[in-house]
Design brief:
single chain, three-stranded antiparallel sheet, 6 helices
């Protein structure tokens, strides 16, 4: 009789422990599930974050399109009117500059290199924007006696590239308003103001000016 009671106690105790273990496991699972859902809520992007991400995607896409357009606009041209000394080799970077007889000097295009040399001149890869400025500078060398275009070599490989600051004449800047191949939008007003100063200085120094383009624009 005593043995039967002992077996019943053990059975009851085992059942009780099993029930407690089951309850403990269930509560633990519920707590873990709650924490997981809470974590998902914390990392769920808000509308502001989503809008910011979308804006960044649009900006990156625009930048990629711009870079792609720059690459497709890059072409090789032969230039016979830019003075590039023999000391500048294919591996060298240089700026294309224009010097005026009154001492003013401007950067036309930066970070260029020679692709090939020939008896006629040098082959250089340039974008449509750079060709736009180079063509305007060449006109100035034809109008202002003593003006010349030349190359300025970078000394160190890690040098920061210069920023072109040459103001084109009014006839050339008019083309920027409708040329669909340009990737950079020109600040017409800023260019016009800088060009006025340049042409006024050259007129005082040489008595020469390009037509009456600015008087027509007033």
């Amino acid at each position: 009789m005593f043995a039967i009671r002992q077996r019943r106690k053990r059975l009851i105790r085992g059942i009780t422990i099993g029930i407690l273990v089951t309850i403990f496991i269930g509560i633990t699972a519920i707590v873990l599930l709650w924490h997981e859902e809470k974590s998902n809520e914390d990392i769920t992007p808000t509308s502001d974050v989503l809008e910011s991400s979308e804006e960044k995607e649009v900006i990156n896409e625009n930048e990629n399109l711009k870079d792609e357009k720059v690459c497709t606009n890059m072409k090789m041209y032969l230039f016979e009117y830019i003075f590039i000394p023999d000391q500048i080799e294919k591996s060298d970077l240089f700026d294309i500059r224009i010097f005026f007889p009154n001492g003013e000097d401007y950067i036309v295009a930066s970070g260029k290199c020679i692709e090939e040399r020939s008896e006629q001149g040098v082959y250089i890869n340039v974008t449509e924007d750079e060709l736009f400025l180079i063509s305007g500078a060449y006109v100035d060398t034809m109008v202002y006696e003593g003006a010349k275009m030349y190359a300025s070599k970078y000394i160190f490989t890690n040098q920061e590239l210069s920023y072109p600051n040459y103001p084109v004449n009014a006839y050339v800047s008019e083309l920027a308003k409708w040329n669909p191949n340009l990737t950079e939008e020109m600040d017409i007003q800023a260019n016009t103001e800088k060009r006025r100063v340049l042409e006024d200085n050259l007129f005082d120094f040489m008595g020469v000016i390009i037509g009456n383009s600015y008087s027509n624009m007033d």
